[in-house]
Design a protein that fits this description.
Elements: H1 3-14, H2 18-25, H3 27-30, H4 40-50, H5 53-64, H6 71-92, E1 97-99, E2 102-104, H7 106-122, H8 126-129, H9 136-159, E3 164-172, E4 179-187, H10 194-217, H11 219-224, H12 234-247, H13 270-290, H14 295-299, H15 304-327, H16 333-356, H17 366-396, H18 399-426
Antiparallel strand pairs: 1-2, 3-4
Helix pairs in contact: 1-9, 1-10, 2-7, 2-9, 2-10, 4-7, 4-18, 5-7, 5-18, 6-7, 6-10, 9-15, 13-16, 13-17, 13-18, 15-17, 16-17, 17-18
Length: 441
């Protein structure tokens, strides 16, 4: 195995979701300066789901027009689009236009839609591209995908985004001089601007582009994969079919295993394939949308430090799970089910704490903060490992299986968003805790 190819695969995976992840962590700095205010996260959720038109188009092309779509060209286009959109955000994110008599951040919303299209489409283009490389490099790609959430969070932490200090505030209780003193949350100024942060995201997309070019043309990568120069998997599939036809004997040898289904190599029955994809959609719905949408509700009642620790350590848990999978590449469907149940149980606990917000269990006890932080780490660690397991399984099944993998990832996220958006943003089912004034019996 080549260390260079591992590094390039990791940097290539870094560009998969770094733009949208970066935009989310920058919200506390952006929101006070735009007319949409804290309605912006709801708008972002809708835009990200609308951007699924990208992966839908790619999936339909693979299904009905196989061989027509040049995957390498699509990857070049979406990385370039992500680079340009991130760069333009640095100049235009505060600009507004009057729409229906009210100022709107049109440039921010339009560019966010382009970024979301890039990141969503990467699920059905980046993964299939990894079929060109040896199977072990897929784990490095998943590590990079995990780092795409960790790196913006670390930079935002250095930037000082969302740092709150509790200051005394005095409120008059009546017309006399009587007054009550309470703590008020006050956001601290950032160490560097949002413009510089967006330029950093653009630079990360350029790094992804450079890694993709080297994966295509670097001599050491080419020596490892001499038969990897194809654009959409059709050539490989045709060659495999031709080779099988040439080598197939006129009579089946006694005891030879027949394919269990027409999916991929036929190693899994249709029931097992359905099980794999249901688990994949479920894990991505939970980790990408359902639980992140209530993270502030589950953590803020325990204090601002608990919230930031849970967000940061959960971001570390994702690439850590991928790193573990590099040395323990297990493909057991039973273990997959056990880990999914365990991760879902931890997720159910986190959801219950969000429902009980602003007065969850042990809210006045330091043990409560420790438990909620560890719960977030365990939740992300287990389900991230499950997603890597499924990626390794589907990589063995061929190019089309990885295209289906990306499509199910986006479908799971879409269903999760469709469920949580009305609960959080329309019906106001959750109540936020105040990091400075949590009053519970």
């Amino acid at each position: 195995m080549s260390l260079l190819t591992h590094l390039l695969s990791c940097l290539f995976g870094l560009g998969s979701w770094v733009s949208i992840n970066g935009l989310w962590v920058e919200l506390p700095l952006i929101v006070p300066q735009i007319p949409e205010g804290w309605f912006l996260p709801s708008y972002l959720s809708v835009l990200i789901q609308m951007a699924n038109v990208g992966p839908l188009f790619v999936t339909l092309m693979h299904r009905f027009k196989p061989g027509v779509l040049n995957e390498a060209a699509v990857v070049y286009v979406i990385i370039a689009l992500g680079t340009v959109a991130s760069f333009l955000l640095g100049f235009l994110w505060k600009e507004t236009l009057v729409v229906a008599g009210a100022p709107r951040s049109v440039a921010l919303l339009v560019l966010t839609f382009f970024l979301a299209t890039v990141d969503c489409t990467s699920s059905v283009t980046f993964l299939p591209f990894m079929m060109r490389l040896q199977p072990q490099y897929l784990t490095s790609y998943f590590i990079g995908e995990g780092v795409s959430g960790l790196l913006p969070a670390l930079v935002a932490l250095i930037q000082g985004v969302g740092v709150v200090h509790c200051v005394n505030a005095t409120q008059s209780t009546n017309r006399t001089s009587n007054a009550t003193s309470e703590l008020q949350a006050q956001y601290q100024p950032a160490n560097f601007s949002a413009e510089e942060f967006f330029f950093f995201l653009s630079a990360m997309m350029l790094v992804c582009l450079a890694a993709f070019i080297l994966l295509n043309y670097h001599p050491s990568v080419a020596r490892e994969n001499p038969n990897s120069r194809y654009t959409n998997g059709v050539k490989q599939k045709a060659q495999r079919g031709r080779k099988w036809a040439e080598q197939k004997p006129m009579m089946e040898p006694y005891g030879q295993k027949k394919p269990r289904s027409s999916f991929g190599s036929g190693s899994y029955s249709w029931l097992q394939v359905s099980y794999i994809f249901v688990v994949l959609g479920w894990a991505n719905a939970l980790t990408n949308v359902v639980l992140p949408s209530v993270q502030s509700y589950s953590c803020l009642p325990y204090g601002n430090n608990a919230y930031h620790l849970s967000a940061s350590l959960a971001a570390v848990a994702n690439p850590l799970a991928c790193f573990i999978a590099m040395f323990l590449p297990i493909r057991s469907l039973v273990l997959m089910g056990v880990l999914t149940v365990c991760g879902s149980a931890v997720g159910a606990f986190i959801m219950s704490m969000a429902v009980l917000s602003p007065c969850p269990l042990l809210v006045h006890d330091s043990a409560g903060a420790v438990i909620i932080v560890l719960s977030w780490v365990l939740f992300v660690l287990t389900l991230s490992y499950v997603k890597v397991m499924i990626g390794l399984i589907l990589r063995d099944e061929g190019h089309s299986a990885l295209v289906c993998c990306g499509a199910v990832v986006q479908l799971g996220s879409l269903l999760g968003a469709a469920t949580m958006f009305p609960l959080v943003s329309v019906f106001g089912f959750f109540s936020s805790g105040d990091p400075c004034n949590t009053r519970c019996p």
